[in-house]
Design a protein that fits this description.
The chain is α/β, with parallel strands linked by helices. Helices cover 42% and strands 12% of the residues.
Length: 450
């Protein structure tokens, strides 16, 4: 691979003069939030004339956002990057691989399909050096290596996936004015969160709004609760064994996590509308009680996407805010985080594809998207001041403070379990069925798949 040395000015000239290159959104050297040194250093890589094809799930506004990042790779290296997004990515990428015409790089929205593609020989391993880089540079680095490591066609495990753009689920939403007026402090531990729940109810308020309704997907919000509580009551390796069904669903440790959810959701005094209302309230409507006067509830546990369903004009940090769904002080399990995220994998190996993975290791590759919207990263060297809002910055800090990260468990389970039996079982439990019976039914469904 040839090298070239370019100043920021020369890079800008190249970007302006290359027909395929998109205009750089942030001019190199002009904004102190960005690590321009990492961009300048990467500009030593010469890929002039190379074309890199990338396929992923991002369309619309997200396509524009990822292309704004890819423009910096083009400008630094002289390569042309052709990105195509698809709403049916999962089907399209399999068809392309089977036809012998895969993209150079694919962006997978979750590890399950990537693991299957690696086992079928469609992905190239990223190498031990990249695995070590992730361990050293990502918060909870071992977690990210584990999530991107799969068996190949010969059964040998290797790192195939590089995680980039993460979604956060371990959040509790609240209205600061309501907390201030009532004199409530942000709980720092699960013990304090439970004490606050009891206190709010004892003072005549309702602690929680919880809604499981989601048409054919009704029940999924409860699976997130259980997954978060598994990570707060058991070591991560137990969570992994549960998700893979190496430990049965009706193991007492899983039943205990379900009952922990029940402590919150099956108490009429703890949830808006009473426990019977939880299963029938649409998840999109469930946070509305935070904003009523007087408040119908004080807290709502949900992922980082939920502000989409807040009242129009609700200002983050003022009208509504969030805190980390805390861990138990007495269990010594660190600060686990539940979430999701996308991972990049090489499907056609080449110097350009390898160079792109190296580009993902630069702070600038993260900071450009951080400075816009909808992007979180566990990369410790990326400047948190690059985040576009205080809310994104605070969520990013939760990620970089995590000691363990685990992917949404139901998304990793077989569809008949994670997207059916688990959802339905949590509705049955929330409406009165026992946790043990629910767990036994889910395990029976899993056994029937074998």
């Amino acid at each position: 691979m040839n090298t070239k040395r370019m100043s920021c000015a020369a890079v800008l000239a190249l970007a302006a003069g290359t027909a395929q290159a998109q205009e750089l959104l942030f001019a190199p050297g002009e904004d102190a939030r960005f690590n321009w040194e990492s961009f300048d250093s990467f500009s030593e890589t010469d890929l002039s004339g190379e074309v890199l094809t990338i396929t992923g799930p991002w369309t619309g506004a997200d396509k524009d956002l990822v292309e704004s990042v890819l423009a910096y790779f083009e400008a630094a290296t002289g390569a042309t990057v052709n990105y195509s997004g698809s709403d049916s990515f999962e089907q399209d990428v399999v068809i392309a691989a089977q036809a012998g015409s895969p993209p150079d790089i694919a962006v997978f929205p979750q590890p399950g399909l990537a693991a299957d593609m690696a086992q079928r020989g469609y992905l190239a391993p990223l190498g031990a050096d990249t695995a070590e880089w992730v361990r050293s540079n990502y918060a909870a680095g071992d977690s990210w290596v584990d999530l991107g490591t799969y068996a190949d066609a010969e059964g040998q495990e290797a790192l195939f996936g590089f995680f980039y753009k993460v979604d956060l689920k371990s959040l509790v939403w609240y209205v600061p004015d309501n907390f201030d007026e009532a004199g409530y402090d942000i709980p720092q531990t699960m013990e304090e969160l439970k004490d606050l729940t009891v206190t709010i109810a004892a003072e005549g308020g309702t602690p929680w709004c919880i809604g499981l309704g989601s048409a054919a997907a009704t029940g999924w919000p409860a699976t997130d609760w259980v997954e978060d509580l598994m990570l707060r009551t058991q070591p991560p390796e137990v969570y992994d064994a549960w998700v893979a069904n190496e430990m049965p669903f009706d193991d007492p440790r899983v039943i205990a996590a379900i009952e922990e959810f029940g402590w919150f959701a099956r108490n009429d005094d703890f949830v808006a509308g009473g426990a019977a209302n939880v299963a029938t309230t649409d998840f999109r409507d469930s946070p509305a009680g935070l904003f009523s006067f007087p408040p119908e509830c004080y807290m709502h546990r949900q992922a980082s996407f939920i502000p989409t369903f807040f009242p129009e004009g609700a200002e983050m940090g003022l009208d509504v805010d969030f805190f980390y769904f805390p861990a138990y002080a007495g269990k010594d399990l660190g600060t686990p985080v539940l979430g999701a995220g996308t991972l990049w994998a090489i499907m056609q190996d080449s110097p350009a594809a390898r160079a792109f993975v190296e580009f993902l290791k630069t702070p600038i590759a993260h900071e450009v998207w951080m400075a816009q919207s909808g992007f979180l990263t566990p990369y410790k060297a990326a400047n948190p001041q690059a985040y576009a809002t205080d809310s994104l910055r605070a969520q990013g800090e939760i990620l970089t403070n995590a000691t363990t990260f685990r992917f949404d468990g139901s998304d990793l389970m077989p569809g008949e379990i994670g997207a059916d039996a688990f959802w339905k079982g949590m509705v049955a439990y929330t409406t009165g069925e026992g946790a043990e019976a629910v767990a036994e039914d889910i395990q029976a469904r899993w056994d029937a798949l074998r």
